[in-house]
Amino acid sequence: MAMGRLAPQLRLLLRASFGPMALGQRSASGPAPTRGPRRLSVEGNIAVGKSTFVKLLLKTFPEWHISAEPITTWQNVQAIGIPTAGPPQSGGNLLDMMYRQPSRWSYTFQMFSFLSRLRTQLVPSPESLLQGQKPVHVFERSVYSDRYIFAKNLFENRFLNDVEWAVYQNWHSFLLREFHSRILLDGFIYLQASPQICLKRLRQRARAEEEGLELGYLEQLHAQHEDWFSHKVTELHFETLKKAPVLVLDVNEDFSENAAKQEELVTKVNTFVKNLG
Ligand SMILES: Nc1ncnc2c1ncn2[C@@H]1O[C@H](COP(=O)(O)OP(=O)(O)OP(=O)(O)O)[C@@H](O)[C@H]1O
Ligand SMILES: Nc1nc(=O)c2ncn([C@H]3C[C@H](O)[C@@H](CO)O3)c2[nH]1
Fold it and tell me: Which residues line ligand 2 (CB under 6 A)?
């Protein structure tokens, strides 16, 4: 992907359109920031291009901070605090286990992915980010997509039974209420593409655990995203979540060599962030 070449030009363009604040620089006379960073989550189907898009954001706004999805934690689950003799053992690949035997492992996976996402959202933004005038912290997916996309879909396919779904939701609601003020998100960026395009990208990326995934699964996840972000019919259980603004970006097109398209997408994100107040 030839994204590196765009960033300096795009920065100039954004500076011209929105002034130095658009690039997160503090004006000499301006007031110090009064609140923490704007916190956004980038959401979307498997292989839609979230990591790729986040890299584009970081090229354009190097002062922003990104928290990646904790997939390596799921691929290598380690026991904590249990001393073992000999060299370090490699952990269990829970992602692989879940895809191979969803009835057996979906509950375990969802509890663990939720816990790891909660941990990610609880980590304070770095000091360096807080120095900027308009600091922005971007997460790849969230504790909300864990529940309202993946766990919900597994339940609807009966890979989580009624009791497992009830226990998961119990923990989810309880912990989110406990940590409410520390995990708040200001908005969502929903990367939208057809399931067919996602499948093409998924095959091209060829992650071993995803070898058996088929179009039907991506169609289900697409429908879950559309229900939440486009049709707004998903039942949400948190008031702040119901009010959170959503930016929908069409990423069907391959923008890797298309500077104008990259610019259009990044400008939309910048305007969205500005409008968050
Ligand atoms: N707009 C695009 N056009 C064409 N290919 C793309 C585009 N965006 C991403 N890709 C390619 O699609 C594949 C998946 O992209 P990426 O890893 O960014 O997806 P992701 O949404 O982060 O995946 P996951 O859901 O697993 O976290 C990669 O090979 C990437 O180079
Ligand atoms: N079941 C399930 N629940 C989740 O919360 C979840 N989040 C991500 N994933 C899968 C999608 C990609 O294969 C891979 C990387 O995104 O992990 C999930 N699977």
Answer: 46, 69, 71, 95, 98, 109-110, 113, 146, 150, 210
> What's the pLDDT score for residue 22?
35
Percent of the chain at pLDDT exceeding 90: 79
Using alpha carbons, list the distances in angstroms from residue 145 to 58, 135, 138, 237, 263. 22, 23, 14, 13, 27
Q: Is 27 exposed, middle or buried (0-12, 13-18, 19+ CB in 10 A)?
A: exposed
Identify the CA nearest to 138 among candidates 24, 38, 256: 38
* Closest atom, ligand 2, to C-alpha of 213: 13
Domains and CATH numbers, the chain: 42-79+89-275 (3.40.50.300)
Query: What's the predicted TM-score (pTM) here?
Result: 0.89
> Residue 34: its pLDDT value, please?
55
Place of tokens 């939208």: 192
Please name which of 214, 102, 212, 113 lies closest in space to residue 158, comparing C-alpha atoms: 102
Contact 194, 252 (CB under 8 A): yes
pLDDT-based confidence at residue 1 (cuts at 50, 70, 90): very low
| 44 annotated as a binding-site residue | yes
ipTM value for the complex: 0.99
Q: Closest-lying ligand to the alpha carbon of 143?
A: 2
